[in-house]
Amino acid sequence: MTDFPLNVIASLGTGQAFFIYAVIGFAFGWVLESSGFGNSRKLAAQFYFQELTVLKVMFTAIVTAMTLVFAASGAGLLDYNLLWVPPTYIWPGIVGGFVMGVGFIIGGFCPGTSLVAAATLKVDGIFFVLGALFGIALFGETIGFYEHFFNSSFLGRITLSDSTGLTEGTLTVVIVLGAIGVFAGAEWLEERVGKIPRAQAPRWRYGAGALLILGAVLVALNGQPGSAERWERIASVEQLRLDHREVHVDPLEVLSLLHDDALRVQLLDLRGEFEFNRFHIRDARHLAGSPLPELAAELIAMPANTVFVLIGRTGDDMEQPWRALRAESVPNLYILDGGAEGWLRRFTNPSAPPVAPRLALGDRHPASDPNPRLFEGSFEPKVEMEIKRAPSGGGCG
Amino acid sequence: MSARFPVTPSTGKPYWNPYLGGIMLGVVLFIAYLITGSGLGASGGMNRLLVWVQDALMPEHVDQVPYLLKMAGGELNPLKNWIVYLTIGTIAGGFASGLLSGRSHWETNKGPQIGKGTRWILAFIGGALMGYGARLARGCTSGQILSGGAVMSTGSWLMMIGVFGGAYLLAYSFRKTWN
């Protein structure tokens, strides 16, 4: 099992966890200020090709963090599936980004840099922060008028690897090489436009660049863990849970979960289409044929109080899908004991006539949505909610 | 007179070399991902601090606007979110760094051709656009471009094109503000 990311809020409580976030923020603010990001002239010079500090700092940070993240993930230390990757909304992102760019050239800051500018008593920074707060407030008041656009072109958690078909390791190498090429171009521009002699730049940057390329190549050679490898890492714990039937949930418990207002229950029906059409539990999602690892990203992104229940014919046929989804770090994942057939038997009045085998009842059978008060019985409760390790929102959530 | 670029602080110690700053920023970002599973950000924390004030001044209004409701409706406390503490830490870190390096004092950074008043008005307008755009894009430069870029979010890389496109497109029109 990978140890990182930690679940700081669940393991330390909000007090200490919030303190850790404040310490990380402190380091962030310190680095921003020290790099000159509290000075609007330094930031604006970027857009006149006089001084490309913004580009150098941002891209050096991106490639450094990227290489470290994928190195740690490849080494089995960090679970990439549990990291918050900002979900993609193509057009709101590009249009919002464009508005930000216009704000950047007019105002001279971005939100993070304006905070350190204001903290170091730059009056233009203080006005920018006030403006940003005004803009944020205005957004809250006006987004209701075009919410449709705000939620459009949603692609979920997609990464450059999904979009290009290249592996994360190859992309790291490509992006690192691209960044170094861009830095060379930036230094050339600075010499021509900003009259900054290139000899001023420290020589150690060549060594740092070489080290970064070496790191990226090692990341690419080491590769990222595949499903089988991810399962091997957790098998010693998770296979025992399967063997001891700790994840096979009694139909009565599932019924009680469905009526628990504090939980969201996702019923994932993996049977064939014919069987699903014949009978399924109300609100079950039919997933036959969907590749499970791709589904995992969507499931992980769901709110932390979601329970996932796999539904097969008998229940025991769900052990392989359970392993596949657990290997991808889907939390709170269980199997309906006895499967759909067991459920149908359990919640059908014995005196009712049996369902004709060729009838497609779907969720119109009374057992699709049984009344919990009519079915009393005891069961051994198995579901324990694991608090999600990754926070449910990103840096700007 | 010394060269105009790179821009130097008017007082105090010089800024770090940009590559050093970038490496340090990358390491901080990696540690944030390693420990917390999410990256850095700023506009989200500003948003919640603002909504906290709005909720104190006009709670009925907050309860009527869906976007605010999600953060501060009913019993929800907009400050009970990690991003708020990250943002407070960012302000404190910038303050401490500026103070210890002697760069912290009252001043307005601007181009030589405009007055302070003009610069303040433009900073406010630019800030408003930036704040609005950052919420529309679901993240600011730190949360999307930096953090999302490092973990290869496709949307973050697309947004980067929008930000640089918008800034470079209007750079010529606003050249007098800065040069």
TrEMBL record, chain A:
<dbReference type="InterPro" id="IPR007272">
    <property type="entry name" value="Sulf_transp_TsuA/YedE"/>
</dbReference>
<dbReference type="InterPro" id="IPR036873">
    <property type="entry name" value="Rhodanese-like_dom_sf"/>
</dbReference>
<feature type="transmembrane region" description="Helical">
    <location>
        <begin position="6"/>
        <end position="32"/>
    </location>
</feature>
<protein>
    <submittedName>
        <fullName>Rhodanese-related protein sulfurtransferase</fullName>
    </submittedName>
</protein>
<feature type="transmembrane region" description="Helical">
    <location>
        <begin position="166"/>
        <end position="186"/>
    </location>
</feature>
<keyword id="KW-0472">Membrane</keyword>
<feature type="transmembrane region" description="Helical">
    <location>
        <begin position="89"/>
        <end position="118"/>
    </location>
</feature>
<dbReference type="GO" id="GO:0016740">
    <property type="term" value="F:transferase activity"/>
</dbReference>
<dbReference type="Pfam" id="PF00581">
    <property type="entry name" value="Rhodanese"/>
</dbReference>
<feature type="transmembrane region" description="Helical">
    <location>
        <begin position="125"/>
        <end position="146"/>
    </location>
</feature>
<feature type="region of interest" description="Disordered">
    <location>
        <begin position="359"/>
        <end position="379"/>
    </location>
</feature>
<feature type="transmembrane region" description="Helical">
    <location>
        <begin position="53"/>
        <end position="77"/>
    </location>
</feature>
<feature type="domain" description="Rhodanese">
    <location>
        <begin position="264"/>
        <end position="352"/>
    </location>
</feature>
<feature type="transmembrane region" description="Helical">
    <location>
        <begin position="206"/>
        <end position="223"/>
    </location>
</feature>
<keyword id="KW-0812">Transmembrane</keyword>
<dbReference type="Pfam" id="PF04143">
    <property type="entry name" value="Sulf_transp"/>
</dbReference>
<keyword id="KW-1133">Transmembrane helix</keyword>
<dbReference type="InterPro" id="IPR001763">
    <property type="entry name" value="Rhodanese-like_dom"/>
</dbReference>
<keyword id="KW-0808">Transferase</keyword>
From TrEMBL, chain B:
<feature type="transmembrane region" description="Helical">
    <location>
        <begin position="82"/>
        <end position="100"/>
    </location>
</feature>
<feature type="transmembrane region" description="Helical">
    <location>
        <begin position="20"/>
        <end position="42"/>
    </location>
</feature>
<keyword id="KW-1003">Cell membrane</keyword>
<keyword id="KW-1133">Transmembrane helix</keyword>
<protein>
    <submittedName>
        <fullName>Uncharacterized protein</fullName>
    </submittedName>
</protein>
<dbReference type="GO" id="GO:0005886">
    <property type="term" value="C:plasma membrane"/>
</dbReference>
<keyword id="KW-0997">Cell inner membrane</keyword>
<dbReference type="Pfam" id="PF04143">
    <property type="entry name" value="Sulf_transp"/>
</dbReference>
<keyword id="KW-0812">Transmembrane</keyword>
<feature type="transmembrane region" description="Helical">
    <location>
        <begin position="120"/>
        <end position="137"/>
    </location>
</feature>
<comment type="similarity">
    <text>Belongs to the TsuA/YedE (TC 9.B.102) family.</text>
</comment>
<dbReference type="InterPro" id="IPR007272">
    <property type="entry name" value="Sulf_transp_TsuA/YedE"/>
</dbReference>
<feature type="transmembrane region" description="Helical">
    <location>
        <begin position="157"/>
        <end position="174"/>
    </location>
</feature>
<keyword id="KW-0813">Transport</keyword>
<keyword id="KW-0472">Membrane</keyword>
